[in-house]
Amino acid sequence: MKKVKITVLKTTLDKELAEEYGISGLTACPMLKAGQVFFADYAKPDGFCDEAWKAIYQYVFALAHGAGNHLFYYGDWIRKPGVAICSCNDGLRPVIFKLEATDKESSIDYTPVR
Questions:
Q1: 83 φ, ψ to 5°?
Q2: What is the largest CA-CA distance in the chain?
Q3: pLDDT at position 76, please?
Q4: pTM metric for this prediction
């Protein structure tokens, strides 16, 4: 298994939807910032949003296991092998991520609980 590089490309705010449904003063995601980089495989990286992880982990897992050698969705989505562009599922202020397969070997960095 390989590590996957996760880059925060941008944080967004849908002003129209936020005005209609959001609380007063709602802003783009306060937890993640454009340019942040994380590395992951099967486990959520430290400091990464739980909800965003739930939205992207299946792509991270696929890339960590070699899906990067092929194009996602039979080549009708992303043109670069080993790359996925995903977002969290916050409908008012989604965060956009770039996932990239790497050659970095993954290893367990904790003691499993039995």
A1: -130, 140
A2: 49
A3: 72
A4: 0.88
